[in-house]
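Notes from hallway chat w/ T.B., transcribed later so I don't forget. T.B. wanted the structure written out for a chain they're using in a teaching module, and asked if we could keep both sequence and structure tokens in one place. Agreed to drop them here.
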Amino acid sequence: MSRYSNQSNHGHRRRRSRVKPIVGTVVTLSVLGGLGYWGYTSLVAPEGPDKDVREATARIQEFLDAWAQNKPVEAGNLTDSPKNAESLVQSVMTNLKPTKTIITAVPSEARKIDGGKVQIPFTVEMDIASAGKITYKSTAKALKNGEWRVEFSTPIIHPLMEAGQTLALKTNGTRGTVLDTYGRELTAPSLVGTVDENGKGVSGLQARYEKVLAGDATHPRSVVVVDRTSGEAVKALTKSGTKPGEDVRTTIDPRVQEAAAEALQGTDKNASLVAIDPSTGYILAAANRPGGMNRALEGRYPPGSTFKAVTATALLLNGMKPDDEAACPKFRQVNGQRFENQKQFALPAGSTFRDSFAKSCNTFFVGERARVAGSAIKDAARYYGIGEEWDIGAVSYDGSVPVPESDNELAASTIGQGKVLASPLVMAAVAATIKEGEFRQPVLVPGHVKKEATAPKLPGAVVEALRDMSRATVTYGAGWALKDIPGSPHAKTGTAEFGAANPPQTHAWMIGYQEDMALAWAVIIEDGGSGGKDAGPVAARFLRSLHS
């Protein structure tokens, strides 16, 4: 039910009600038509009204003036039922909060009726900021019992009201809802975002789609007659000028989102997991622990060895094959800078490009940097949409792979360090492109995407080689944590150095895709250790949940 503003009847115990007063400062009101006694005599027939009509009319006008000036006590004292009149006038003026009130009597139409009473019509005009202008006509009667008093009844305030009713404002424009792919309300706080105490979106999709969700709030409320006890609307007196808010539908699959959120529960570090459908680019999950910034889509991190998928693409385009021999020593020196493998491992003689990829050998990739000099790595990144501007329907960071300016910078770029940056979404898209064979720009809110980024299609031989090597990463390489997961997972691990500490701090990464379902994903644990040992178990929990 909509909520209304209201006040309790005077003299009754205040009770909990669905009618709630609208808080605000009563604005000083403008009153026209307060003509007074002598003003009325000039507006009637030349012979003038008789004394009773003049006196009754003057008293009614005093009541109308007090009402228009929002003086409920004064207005009540001019009636035969002071407390009831005071209560209703106060209720109406508090509820409607008019910025301007004009109540104009029509003294020329004053007349005597049965019982010695005098009746006079009047017009009410109110400007209400949230509901526009309301104008209506009513009639007041006065009776003489020693002195003239307004005969008070509820219809005086509005002719369509009955006893026990008041006027109030009803909020008609309902705010839209952020929905999942099935049209149900999305429960992913870091994606949905929050609204402030006034119902305005301040973060996430609530902020981005504020105008869509809120609708046109020119006149968001209408004036209605409500029951003062129950708060139920009885009838509407005006129409709202509001266009109701619209829902915003996302591509999030609640089952995948839940599995992603649960998989992150096992870490006490900042962590994110994003999953996409490689065939469509639809984002199926974007989970963050803890909440706040949506790091899954917006985070900027060195991708570390997960980026070797891009460097491997450049090498394959240059003519290398997975079975080519690949040297993987403990160290490589580049202009006095030493590059090494994690825990300073080395691979035996006769090891292949596939082996170096699967076991994440830094020194092999650094040693092959001459093959990918100049813009080769940047060009390879374009096959994955990196370097293009993505319109996913939400804020995203779409990665940066600048052309290296030195040999040392080139060496760092080959292993996802230096100036190379990516979000978890970008790296999930890399995995998705390998599975699909071509880039599909990720999308979160398809109904609001104007133009999707595109990329050239990877050569078939390159795709097959990347699939072969990413599967080897799981079967005998650094992706061992996924070895027993059904569905033939393919992966690439990453341990990305950051900061100036010695030894350096590292983010733990893993990206991959499933052969048995439309799913590609990326996991990052900030300052989380190594990809295989720390990110791998998170990915395993995620995939097991989806297979259960």
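Follow-up for T.B.: The longest strand covers residues 132-145. Might be a good example for the class.
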